[in-house]
Amino acid sequence: MNTNVATMKGKTADVEKDASMRKQKEMMAAHYDRLTAVPQTGEKVCSTFVPGNLNELIGCFDLLNNLPEVNAIQNGLRRTSGQYVLEAEKIGHSEDVCTYVKSDIGMIAKGNIAPNGKPFPNPDVLLLSYTGCFTFMKWFELLREQYQCETIMLHTPYMGDGKITPNMIQYMVKQLREEVIPKLERVSGVKFDIDRLRERLARSAQAEENLVHVLQSARRRPSPIDAYFGGIYYIGPIFGAFRGTEDAIQYYRFLREEIDARVAAGTGPITPEGDMGPEKYRLVVEGPPNYTNFRQFWKMFYDEGAVVVASSYTKVGGVYDLGFRHDPQRPLETLAEYCLGVYTNRSLPMRIEMLSNYIEEYGADGLLINSIKSCNSFSAGQLLMMREIEKRTGKPAAFIESDLVDPRYFSAANIKNRLESYFQMVEQRRAGARSAA
């Protein structure tokens, strides 16, 4: 299913992608085209965030989903985020502010241009389903000042005790019924239809089932996927604008077939330079990737034969592999449970348990933490997590640092040195285990 790319002496003519990666890219491009055509089509836009997003509900009101942090990621991959971050700092935002925020604010100041080169439309409504990241609240305050449009907040209780209680669900369902749905009706002019929501939730559950199948294929040796770098492509449709749609069902069915074919062939993941080759190291990674140097960052791993078999970042929009599926029989309750369970709303003990289990379940050699300078939601407590996971699993852990979309905080030499030292430590542990045996 893969297309070989022509190579020139000493360099690759093009980046090799799976067919599913190309399909995902086409889906995203079509969505941006639809967003930027709003002045002509008259469709209305809801800006919201990835963790805990209510895409099924948004779709019931014929609203287009626009995700500010996904736009920041796109700017990072296209290497335009650096200039936007600097623009936001000129306006007065601190160097310590989340660079997703600064990329978005700087992009707005410079014309608010989408990846297709056309201006983004102004949102008709801002919907924040708060799930553990306080920065999102301040970000939406800035956007509310900018756009002067309807703003809706769905407050999600933090899972400090590690469990979802009936009171939490009732509290959120009450907000959905009394605040969120009436305001979406008013903005969109569309009457809420709970049966329409049930249909969308059923489609979500079907897509989620296939995504979990793909992610859990990494239990195999060799892993047919990279669950961090490749995983960014896999989660795109379901974490963003497509969950609850027929497009999502088709994409994840297509992706599952592609990965199953790779399993049958006994091959590892595809990298930008083709097949990864022999699998030497299996890692679990905590924290988001760097996007401004995404391909260079990934190359540091696959050049060493290192594949990521599980990651926390691919769970920020839903921890489906722990059993959650959207339930059309309990439409509002399942939306509440989804928001409550996303990774950013989980306490440190829950995160430690999850990552420790991944190391054991996926046969990983250890844990790698990529600590993001400007993301307190992920970075707070990571050193504590690293030491505790090392103690629980007996596997080595390592710590590297970069940033989301600010190129000033990506030091290739420093990261490469730390990775090489970590792989040497893994080899030493292996040698010690062989001697003991």
Q: Give the uncertain stretches in residue-range form.
A: 1-13
| Strand residues, percent | 5-15%
Could you give the order of the helices and strands? EEHHEHEHHHEHEHHHHEEEHEHHEHHEH
Main beta sheet, described? 4 strands, parallel
Number of domains: 1
Chain oligomer state: single chain
Mean pLDDT: 93
If helices are DSSP runs of H or I spanning 4 or more residues, what is the number of helices?
17
Query: C-alpha Rg, in Å?
Result: 21 Å
What can you see in these coordinates?
With 437 residues, the chain is α/β, with parallel strands linked by helices. It has one domain (15-436). The chain contains 17 helices and twelve strands. It has helices at residues 19-36, 38-41, 55-60, 68-77, 81-91, 99-109, 134-147, 166-188, 194-216, 229-239, 246-265, 294-302, 331-341, 348-361, 376-379, 382-393, 412-436, and strands at residues 7-8, 11-12, 44-47, 63-66, 125-130, 150-155, 270-271, 274-275, 281-286, 306-311, 366-372, 397-402. The strands form four sheets. It has a four-stranded parallel beta sheet with strand order 4-3-5-6, sandwiched between helices. A four-stranded parallel beta sheet has the order 10-9-11-12, sandwiched between helices.
Characteristic key phrases:
alpha/beta; disordered N terminus; 437 residues; 12 strands; 17 helices; four-stranded parallel beta sheet
Please write out the topology.
Layout: E1 7-8, E2 11-12, H1 19-36, H2 38-41, E3 44-47, H3 55-60, E4 63-66, H4 68-77, H5 81-91, H6 99-109, E5 125-130, H7 134-147, E6 150-155, H8 166-188, H9 194-216, H10 229-239, H11 246-265, E7 270-271, E8 274-275, E9 281-286, H12 294-302, E10 306-311, H13 331-341, H14 348-361, E11 366-372, H15 376-379, H16 382-393, E12 397-402, H17 412-436
Parallel strand pairs: 3-4, 3-5, 5-6, 9-10, 9-11, 11-12
Antiparallel strand pairs: 1-2, 7-8
